[in-house]
Fold each of these.
Amino acid sequence: MKKSIARKIIESHLVSGEMTCGSPIQIKIDTTLTQDATGTMAYLQLEALGINRVKTMHSVSYVDHNTLQNGFMNADDHKYLQTVASAYGVDYSKAGNGICHQVNLERFDIPGQTLLGSDSHTPTAGAMAMIAIGAGGLDVALAMAGMPYSLKMPKIINVQLKGTLHHGVSAKDIILKVLQKLSVKGGVECIMEYTGDIKQLSIPERSTICNMGAELGATTSLFPSDEVTKEFLTLQKRPEDYIELLPDEDAEYDDIIEINLDQLKPMVAKPHQPDNVVEVSELKGMKVDQICIGSCTNSSFTDLATVANILKDKTVHPDVSLTISFGSKQVLRALAASGHLETLIASGARLLESTCGPCIGMGQSPKTDAVSLRTFNRNFFGRSGTSSAGIYLVSPETAALSAITGVISDPSEAEFTKASMPESIVVDDSMILKPEFISKQQIIKGPNIKPFPVKRPLSDIHDEVLLKLEDNISTDHIMPAGASILPYRSNIEKLSEFCFHVVDPTFHARALAAKNGIIVAGENYGQGSSREHAALTVMHLGIEAVLAKSFARIHRQNLINNGVLPLTFLHAEDYDSIQQGDILEIKDVTNITKDKCLTVYNHTQNNEFTVLHLLTQKEINMIKDGGLLNQLKKQLQK
């Protein structure tokens, strides 16, 4: 069999299982990353596992999400993350050093390796020919403890890029085009492997495409490791990390998609989904209020140097607020050395930290009814912090030009120079702290860091439908981000007060009163972030099961890890027969077995229907024990 890159890497890391689509497999994880919004919970879980040191080749803890220090909570969490990293043998990247995916790409990603990260955009590392997968914090903690990662063998889809990008068209437009073709659920349980005319794409451009593969629901995305990879690693003073890794000639794939770059135009994703994509020309002239450039998708040197070239000798439109977030300290220093930083300052742009910032609603919420263009990866409802705002996802080129004109503008019609990588950069890892292997007694936990909740073992389910939801409910709907909420991520009891607040402000009180309940949802439930808090808070509030037409991969696994039963309608139309407030009984659920359907009786409507659980035997055991941590503790007691 002629092998794809993805197949080669998985095969070399396979611990158990057969590499046939849909079959359960386990793979060895070489490296991990965490970030501070998910990391505190991951390290609390790591502590509970009782190991002395992490067993991966390399692990890094980043602070890049919650850097606004309004009160003690974020600062306390940062100190906890620093001390727990030092105790367990994990590198610690301080606040201000940069966004985890950008820094990992610069300093740590290695072709041919596997990476598991507690952030849904971990597949950014696919630009370096890695199998890089986003997962919940508990799965990452287990990987740090030396355990393999379990998943279903994905389909491997070959995305063939044909032709040449025209002036003003960028890598962001490529992935927006893929989203337009496939939708936000079109990549579920798939790996997207890019081939074809790819040598024109730098590593930062490839990282943009792999980053937003997460919005397809894909397990990961990746490019070959070739001369472009070698040049980037040499620039980073890591030539020893380079290996050539290409697909076999005539490699076999499960599907093939072609993107004609010669015909590609600048694209834009309209509110409120990343796949609601049209050509920029269709919205040309729409007045703009805010523009935010940056995020792990588009904050590299080449992105921001190109923005500077567009802004040179010009100023931001009087009615526009333009912010720029830098991907890393390295990027910021390179912009300063090249003179581009002076251009950005002179333009009137507002310069923010080298962090995620507005992408996760951490500041810079737009005004009421605003049109905000963002070079980010998500435009879910309410994610910006202003529910009435319309968030549009665009390339840095479209964003920069529109910042000058004050209206959505087509960069293919403007004159500017596309930036390339600098000839040299300053490599400075002084803000990455190496572990000192301090004693466990020196780990510092502030008062807001609470023990994570534990669910009781599976019992009979006879509960009220506390919420009925539509399609494409994201983790932002379930557990919102933002400056006022994320500081409580280490305190699940407090955090649960915000659970589903965007959808129904009464949910928390009703869930407390009911003590137990069921959620019903449509297609692609739980898309978006890997934050397991969306499962932890639901579990804490007594939700026993979620019935949906389909689930996003990471959230489904997070529900299982935390003992919440994910069930899929056998017949999608049965969703229509359920109303919020109905009383559902899931019959004989405690005797759940592999490949056997479950029957749900609706006492309120006096009817019954069939649901699928699609669980492996391992997952059934996990659900019966009340979640993965309960299961591990049970095994340790033996």
Amino acid sequence: MGEEAAGKPPVVILREESTVTSGTAVQEKLIAAARVFADLLRPTFGPRGLDKMLYKTDGTTAITNDGAKIIAELMVKHPAAKMLVSMAETQENTCGDGVTGTLLMCSELLMEAGRLMEKGLHPLVVHSGYERAREVSLEKIQTLCIDVDVKDKETLQSIAATSLTGKGAEGAIKTLSKLVINALMSVSRIEEDGTHRCEAEDVTMHKTGKGSITDSQFVKGIVIRRRILLDALPTHIQSPNVAVLNCDLAPRKQIRSSEIEIEEVEQLEAFLEMEETLRDKLSKSLIATGANVFLSSGEIDKGILHRLMRSGCFVVGELDDRELRNAAAATGARIVEFAADLEETDVGQAGELKTERRPTTDKVEDIIRLVGCINPKVVTCEIGGANDLATEETIRAIHDALRSTSLTIQDGRILHGGGATHMACALAIREAAEREPGRERLAMEAYARALEIIPISLAKNAGADPLDRILELRAAHRSGSESAGIDSSGKVGQTDARVSATTLESAIEAASETCGSMLRIDQVISARGD
């Protein structure tokens, strides 16, 4: 019995290489992951934020200061860091903007929690105080919201300009902000319940590969990159009627395999003649619908292609599902599954068809434009720029602007940017904390300090002293100037920055929930031993 007790236990629960981390070491691991993300993203934040060059494993390079892009390209291994990545993805999918600010807030909340736990506060006490502070923040935001008329283009442009500021597209903010507003207004519509529907996904992007960013323009229609099948096809059609086919443009084929034994030449000629008759019949039925532009997802039969070409029709094939749906949404056409079933009511309209031939290479396709659509549900932004890396960064910036502005159009609420709202919420939390008798008060004060990381980062990246600026900003807000923030030069005052209320509410909730989930972790069990 004594020998058995002195040896290893008879039941092994974990593998020998597994490690179990408990106590304060767990919190240190979580806070270390948060600090790495904060140090990585803080220099990219705000109008004076700098870019990161990402050299990926496949050898390609990207230059960006977009938090969502940076996080997406990182090969994260740490389990706590993966929670932060998941939070960033949720913020990007929900709002399309505010990823960097959300990560900075969550990281600062964790670091503040670490300091409190070192002083002896229980993690759940910190979590309870954070939850109370979050509620106070959201209540304060409701009082700070400014209602916006969806027809007020000037205010909407300020929302778009705020999202574009600090990105590679900053040199053309006026041009791009107008482009964003025009695109969204074209696809915005009022639903039966009276709400506005405005989806950023209804705006597609197209890189022209020439000119500069200021040459970017809004197209009321779609742009497709595909090889033009015949040089003799028309290059310009005014007021085209568009048919969208999710099938091959060819006579219907037999499903079953069969063999035909031909003994005489006349039988072969009759067989071939029947095929030509089928092509003639299908071509005539297509032309009879009034369509003169045919967009197909499948292959194009050569015989039918030549027949349609001789009738002045334009044909393009092998489009993917997204291009097919966008074409139907832009022109008002109905997607048809069988070519023979096409009817006149399935045909859509556009203002103009224009094609642009490119030199024959393996990478460059011809450009096909369907523009001037009457009531398009999908539109396109043509982005200029000869530098592909710069153009990609511009597209990311425009995407953020589209998402934040579309949220504003649907929700009708905006807030002052530049850290103004964060400071107002921090002061409201401090006032609420004065009425708390328990230890949660310390956590609420820590939450208020964490919110101030946003104006602090803006001031630091602008080259100003963050301590002096944060004290000035507090004094300005206590004096009743709740719209004061940190401007692009790092000074305290009124700013032109405006943000969607939905974006900021989502950021505060996501940061608080992720931090709360981490605070409830008391052990980390690793089967890998690291």
